[in-house]
Structures are given as C-alpha cells and as structure tokens.
C-alpha cells in the first residue's frame, strides 16, 4: 500500500514535470514562430532597396545593390521573392526569383538579360552564400520555426530591452548550424541577435539587428549585420525605401516579369 | 572607315545627349582589354593573335509609363594585323505593352530560348562562334537580330513569336583569326586566300526568319513547343555551279521539358530538322533532315561547386539515300552523332574567384573542345581573367576537329562602371 502511494506520487511528479517542460518548449516554439513572422512575413507584401556591403578580413569592401519584392501567400507559408540587381556592373539588370514553400525545395529562376537567358537554378543547398555575402539563402528567406527544437534558456536584457533567449537545435546533419541561440525582443518579437554554432559547437556567425525602425507601423530591422567570427569578416545590409502592403500581384512573380521588371515597383 | 567612325561618334553623342533628356536614364558599361595568342605554330591563319582588342561598352537604359528603351553599344579598337576601329550596336530596342497580355520588343535584340547549356536545338537565333572561341565574354556568344518579338500571355501558356526580316547567320571562323576546315581544299585552311564567307540569301520575305514558341508550366515543370522557319544558320549547303557555300532552307519543329528533380534541374529537348531544299535526302551538297535530341542534368554539388552533364544525339534521316547519292571520294558522315558535355563551376574566396571548365566530347566524331578559365574579381569594378580554348580531333572535318589548330590562351581585364 505504502509502495503504491509512493509510486503514485512519483508518477504525478513525473507527469507534471514533463508537462511543464513541454509547456516551456511550446512557449519557446511560439516565440520563434512570432519572431519568424515578424522578420520574414511583415505585412502582406513588401518592397525595399537594399545595399549589401561585404567586408573581408583585410577590410576590403564589396557592394551589392538590389531591389527586393516579396509577396506572402500565407503567413508563415508560401512566399514569392523577386530581386532586381543594380550593382556591381556584372550583375546589373539581372533578376532573380524564388518561390518558397516551407518544407519543400525552393524554385529559383535567374534571368541574364545580356543573353536573354532564363535559367532555372537547383536550390538544394539553402546554406550556400547569398551573392557571396555572409548571409545564406536560408538567412534571407527564413527557416521555418518547426524545423528545429527550441528551448527557452532564460529571459534577459540586451541593449536595454527585455529578450527571450532561445536555443534552437536542428535535426542532426543540418549543414547550416548545429545550434542557434536567439535573443528575441519580448515586445515586438524581432530577433536582436542570433548566434550560430558550427558542428564542433564553436560560434561561427553572429547576426545583429543594428537598427530597428518603425515603417508604416511595422517594426523593421533596417540595418542588419552578419559577422563570421571564424573568418573575421562581415556583411552589413541596409534597407531603404521600404514599403509594406503595396498591393503586389502574384503574376509579378512569373517569367514574364522576370524578363520585364515591373517598372511601377522597380525604377 | 572614316564614315563609320563618324557614325559611331554621332551615335555615341546621341546616346550621351539623350541621357540628359530621358526621364531616369542609367548609363553603365565596361572597358575591356582582351589579348589572346594561338598555341599552335602550324595554324594557317595570318596572325598568331586570336584576339587583341580594347572594347568599350556603353549601356543606356530609360523607361517611362508603359515603354522602355535599352541600348548597348560597343566600340572596339582592334590591333590584330591592321589596327582598326570598329563598333557594333549589340542591342537597341524599345519594349512596350499593348493591352494587358501582349508585350512587344522591337529593334536590335538578343533572343534565347531552349533548355541546353551551350547546346542549341530549338534556339536558332544567331551565335557568334568567333567570339566564343577566342575568349570574349559569354554574352558575346549570342549575336543580335534585327527584328521584332511579340509575347502573348494567357492562362493556357505563353506564345512568343520572333520575326527577323533579314536572315541573320551564325558568325563562324573565317580563316582570318581562326582557321577552319575547307571541304574543297580538303584540309584546315586560313589566311587571306581562304577567307570564308557563305553566300547571303537575297533580302526577300521568303528568306526571312520566323521563330515561335509556346510554353507553359505544369506545376514546377516547364514545357515548350517550338517552330522555326528560315535557313540553316551555318553555310552548310554547297552551290557546285558557283563553288560557294550557302544557307539552305530549314524548318524545325521541336519540344522541351525542364523540371527540378533529384535536388537538381533536368532537361530534355528535341527537334526535327526538316531540310526543305533536300526533302528526298539524296543531295550530297545539302544536309539531310535529322532529329536532334538532348538530355541534361545540373546540380549544386556543394555550396561552391556546381556541375552539369549533357548528352546530345543527332540522327540523320534517309541515310541510305545520302550514302547512295554520295560522290566518290567525298567524306561519309555517320548516321548518328553523339556528344557529351560537362560544366564545372567552382567559386572561391567569397565568390571573388571563379574556376570554370566546360568540355565537349564526341565519341562518334572523336573530337573534343574544352573551355577553361580562372577569373578574379579584384574589386567590384575590376576583374582579371585567364582562359584557354583547346580543340582536338582525329579528323579535320568534324565539328570541333575542324578547329583543332586554333588552341589559344588569353588574358582579359575588365573595368565596369
């Protein structure tokens, strides 16, 4: 009888403990979902001019200038991206289009106007560098929150703001990182900082939102930095002329507009 | 010559001046030096330089409500054997839209379609193999057409029609800088005595070119059907009365499929070449009809290494009649031609260094063509490139074997602005 009671107590403790753990995990996943939506799905669509500065370990700078259009077909779901390159000269007027469906392989197209060539690009490796920068394709278009296991490590203060510190572990064998620690703003849920760890568990890259501005009522990181601490190099991305809910139609994200940039949005 | 120079100067002035008036014009372009030398002492061309040129490209773009203008003008100083100036309007077109679904592009333009990587079956727009074989940028492989293109977009798919009033042939080696195989001489020739030029057809409507395509997506698979009515793009016909090569009449019907599969992109394309001047197939001086097909696959091996492979097959129709009609002593071509190609591209140092290799190998013709290059982007504006073109062949009369004395290496410096 006594043994039976002890077992019951142990069972109750175990159940409540595991329930509290999963509640914490749910909370962490919920925060990461909000962060993902805040960073990658702001508004129903958006357009922005982007200047990307890539700085190598010797301090040498390279620049990329482009205009980006984005349309969300579903919050957290299917998305279309359109990029029109302006600089440098060898990629000027080149256009790039992505149809992103979470958990599926992206469809990507590149149009090279000098030879009038529409090229479809195999998009198997989302962890390759985006146009030679420290950002990967996955950093640019987002990694779905449900692909990793999240754990709320603590709440903290970063740069005077309350943040949730969340650890994310991907499935074994993920190439991009083995562990990620995100510092998510407790109010607007934008990541203020993310630390990416490599296979050996060493810190490899650090993302920081250097400047967050209010654009049409939406908190937007307008200056973002990705530093590769191992290679001692970094990339800074500056967003200007940002507009949300501009009314982009889905037909813009087709081969017709890939070859003929929509001039109402791309001047 | 001075007239050309004046014209070029006037055009440049117009381009620059119009920049002052147009709404929001962008002028960009590059300055490029390209110097290449032949690696084969026995090359019968007059010059051992395969390239020695300085090129200034001006690009001007302007757009307003509903219409868009684009111009690309090259000025070339060429000191190959007789120093000379030259210029070419690479592109100069207006784009506009009528209604909601119809787009027009009118003027001098470059047109590309089809699925292959440097293999063209249904793309019968002009290629510039002289540029391609001597180290010029990839954009110079496509030669411009003067014409108009209309594209109609609907739910069912896209219909594109390109009309070129004046037949525009491929630019192939003429013996000036690159030697070639001359069937009359029976070997590889070059130099002034063997300057090669096909006879252009008369400027008549029936000699114009019409190329059409219908394309649409089924999910992520893109499917296209093609039609071409014009002439063979190379002077593959022989007028035995006047002893001159010419461009026989050609119709092409084709189709292609391209889709993402196995973590890469695969493509399949085929075309039926209907040789209109030799429908019976017994004229040895005009190519027989044939079917050309290819299959290809491209994938990203890791984050900085991309590769593709292709296989092409060309099969001659009415081969028996071809053989029966062949005069004594003339070289007999195979009924079936096979070609394998591969491309490897490796990016290093944050994509500032590009290593590129492309190889063509035909097991049936037993010939080879390899393109190799290393380029380094010193800054966003300044790029250095070293490259080579290597040809080999058991016979002198095959597609690549014909150029086997043209092995060359080149250096290229580009400053973009």
Q: What overall form of chain A do the CA principal axes indicate?
A: globular
Q: What's the CATH H-level homologous superfamily of chain B?
A: Porin
CATH fold topology of chain A: outer membrane lipoprotein receptor (LolB), chain A
The general outline of chain B is globular
The averaged pLDDT of chain A comes out at: 90
**SSE run of chain B:** HEEEEEHEEEEEEEEEEEEHEEEEE
**Considering DSSP H and I runs of 4 or more, what fraction of the residues of chain B is helical?**
under 10%
Provide the CATH top-level class of chain B: Mainly Beta
- For the record, the CATH class of chain A is Mainly Beta
Low-confidence stretches of chain B: 1-5, 13-22
Number of strands of chain B: 22
Domain module tally of chain B: 1
Structural class of chain B: mainly beta
Q: Give the tally of β-strands of chain A.
A: 13
Q: What is the strand content of chain A?
A: 35-45%
Query: What are the secondary-structure elements of chain A, in order, as H or E?
Result: HEEEEEEHEEEEEEEH
Query: Biggest sheet of chain A, strands in spatial order?
Result: 6-5-4-3-2-1-13-12-11-10-9-8-7
Please give the largest β-sheet of chain B.
18 strands, antiparallel, barrel
**CATH architecture type of chain B:** Beta Barrel
How does this structure look, described?
The complex is a heterodimer of chains A (267) and B (417). Helix content of chain A is 18%, strand content 45%. By secondary structure, chain A is an alpha+beta fold. Chain A has one domain: outer membrane lipoprotein receptor (LolB), chain A, CATH 2.50.20. A 13-stranded antiparallel beta sheet of chain A has the order 6-5-4-3-2-1-13-12-11-10-9-8-7. In chain A, a hairpin with a 5-residue loop joins strand 1 and strand 2 (61-72). Chain A is globular. The model of chain A has no long low-confidence stretch (mean pLDDT 90). Chain B is mainly beta and 417 residues long. Chain B has one domain: Porin (Beta Barrel), CATH 2.40.160. Helix content of chain B is 8%, strand content 53%. Chain B is built from 3 helices and 22 strands. Chain B has helices at residues 2-21, 129-133, 319-325, and strands at residues 26-38, 49-64, 67-78, 84-98, 102-109, 145-154, 157-164, 180-182, 187-189, 209-218, 221-231, 237-239, 244-246, 249-261, 264-275, 290-302, 305-316, 336-348, 353-362, 367-377, 382-393, 408-416. In chain B, the strands form 3 sheets. Chain B has an 18-stranded antiparallel beta barrel. In chain B, strands 8-9 form a two-stranded antiparallel sheet. The model of chain B is unreliable at 1-5 and 13-22 (pLDDT under 50). The interface between A and B is large, with 36 and 48 residues.
């Amino acid at each position: 009888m006594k043994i039976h009671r002890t077992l019951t107590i142990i069972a109750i403790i175990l159940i409540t403990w595991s329930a509290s753990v999963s509640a914490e995990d749910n909370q962490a996943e919920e925060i990461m979902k909000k962060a993902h939506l805040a960073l990658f799905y702001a508004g129903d669509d958006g357009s922005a001019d982007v200047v990307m500065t890539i700085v190598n370990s010797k301090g040498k700078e390279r620049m990329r200038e482009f205009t980006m259009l984005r349309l969300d077909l579903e919050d957290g779901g299917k998305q279309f991206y359109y990029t029109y390159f302006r600089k440098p000269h060898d990629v000027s007027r080149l256009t790039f289009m992505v149809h992103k469906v979470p958990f599926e392989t992206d469809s990507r197209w590149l149009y090279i106007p000098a030879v009038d060539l529409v090229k479809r690009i195999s998009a198997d490796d989302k962890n390759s560098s985006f146009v030679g920068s420290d950002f990967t394709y996955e950093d640019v278009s987002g990694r779905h929150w449900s692909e990793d296991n999240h754990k709320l490590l603590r709440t903290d203060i970063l740069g005077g703001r309350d943040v949730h510190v969340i650890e994310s572990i991907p499935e074994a064998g993920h190439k991009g990182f083995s562990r990620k620690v995100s510092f998510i703003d407790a109010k607007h849920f934008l990541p203020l900082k993310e630390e990416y760890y490599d296979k050996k568990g060493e810190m490899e890259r650090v993302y920081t939102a250097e400047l967050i501005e209010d654009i049409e009522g939406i908190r937007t990181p307008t200056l973002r930095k990705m530093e590769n601490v191992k290679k001692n190099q970094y990339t800074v991305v500056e967003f200007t002329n940002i507009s949300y809910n501009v009314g982009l139609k889905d037909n813009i994200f087709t081969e017709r507009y890939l070859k003929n940039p929509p001039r109402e949005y791309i001047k | 010559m001075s007239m050309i120079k004046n014209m070029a100067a006037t055009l440049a002035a117009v381009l620059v001046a119009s920049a002052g008036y147009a709404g929001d014009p962008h002028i960009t372009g590059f300055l490029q030096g390209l110097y290449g030398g032949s690696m084969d002492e026995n090359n019968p061309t007059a010059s051992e330089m395969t390239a020695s040129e300085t090129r200034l490209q001006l690009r001007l773009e302007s757009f307003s409500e509903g219409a868009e203008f684009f111009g690309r003008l090259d000025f070339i100083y060429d000191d190959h054997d007789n120093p000379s100036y030259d210029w070419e309007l690479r592109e100069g077109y207006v784009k506009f839209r009528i209604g909601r679904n119809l787009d027009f592009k009118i003027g001098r333009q470059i047109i590309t379609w089809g699925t292959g990587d440097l293999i063209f079956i249904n793309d019968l727009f002009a290629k510039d193999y002289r540029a391609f074989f001597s180290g010029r940028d990839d954009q110079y492989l496509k030669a411009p057409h003067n014409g108009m293109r209309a594209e109609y977009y609907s739910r069912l798919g896209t219909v594109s029609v390109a009309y070129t009033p004046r037949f525009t042939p491929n630019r192939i080696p003429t013996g000036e800088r690159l030697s070639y195989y001359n069937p009359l001489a029976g070997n590889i020739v070059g130099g002034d005595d063997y300057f090669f030029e096909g006879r252009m057809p008369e400027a008549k409507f029936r000699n114009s070119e019409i190329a059409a395509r219908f394309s649409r997506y089924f999910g992520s698979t893109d499917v296209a059907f093609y039609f071409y009515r014009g002439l063979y793009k190379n002077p593959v016909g022989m007028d035995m009365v006047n002893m001159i090569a010419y461009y026989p009449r050609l119709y092409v019907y084709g189709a292609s499929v391209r889709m993402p599969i196995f973590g890469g992109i695969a493509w399949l394309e085929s075309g039926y070449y209907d040789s209109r001047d030799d429908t019976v197939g017994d004229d040895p001086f005009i190519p027989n009809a044939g079917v050309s097909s290819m299959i290809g696959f491209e994938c990203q091996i890791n984050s900085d290494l991309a590769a593709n492979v292709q296989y092409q097959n060309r099969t001659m129709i009415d081969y028996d009649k071809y053989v029966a009609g062949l005069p004594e002593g003339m070289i007999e071509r195979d009924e079936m031609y096979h070609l394998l190609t591969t491309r490897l591209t490796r990016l290093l140092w944050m994509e500032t260094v590009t290593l590129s290799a492309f190889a063509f190998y035909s097991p049936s013709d037993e010939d080879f063509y390899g393109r190799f290059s290393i380029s380094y982007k010193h800054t966003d504006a300044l790029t250095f490139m070293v490259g080579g073109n290597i040809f080999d062949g058991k016979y002198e009369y095959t597609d690549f074997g014909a150029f086997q004395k043209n092995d060359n290496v080149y250096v290229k410096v580009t400053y973009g602005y």
